[in-house]
Design goal:
By secondary structure, the protein is mostly helical. It has a single domain, classed as Orthogonal Bundle (N-utilizing Substance Protein B Homolog, Chain A), CATH 1.10.940.10. It is globular. The N and C termini lie far apart (32 Å).
Length: 127
């Protein structure tokens, strides 16, 4: 599984976990549909969940005129996943994380999602 596909599957699993009490393993298994999991996919999902409080706090600082709870669920999930990569996976170039987030928004969000997410994430890369 390529990293782009792993990010898509991670997003789907995190989206499920945001509104259910499913165990992480079940959420991942559900989105894989008979595919094998990868270490990258597992790291994205588990890491985002483990660091959710710190990620949310960092996001709240960067959001202007928004709170996380007011964000559409898909944008919130893409932001959490991407901020996890930006803060906790330094081997991934920032531009790759931003490009992947924009692509995820184009697939799963609406026409405004990618611009909004790009604007928020770019604040993390200007440090």
């Amino acid at each position: 599984m390529k990293r782009h596909e792993a990010r898509e599957k991670a997003l789907q699993a995190l989206f499920q976990l945001d509104s259910t009490e499913l165990p992480i393993e079940q959420a991942i298994e559900h989105v894989l549909e008979e595919q094998k999991s990868t270490a990258f996919l597992e790291q994205l999902v588990r890491g985002t969940i483990e660091h959710k409080e710190a990620i949310d706090a960092a996001l709240e600082e960067k959001l202007e005129n928004w709170t996380l709870s007011r964000l559409p669920k898909i944008e919130r999930t893409v932001l959490r996943l991407s901020v996890y990569e930006l803060l906790y996976m330094p081997d991934t170039p920032h531009r790759v994380v931003l490009n992947e987030a924009i692509e995820l928004c184009k697939v799963f969000g609406d026409e405004k999602s990618s611009k909004f997410v790009n604007g928020v994430l770019s604040k993390f890369t200007q440090q």
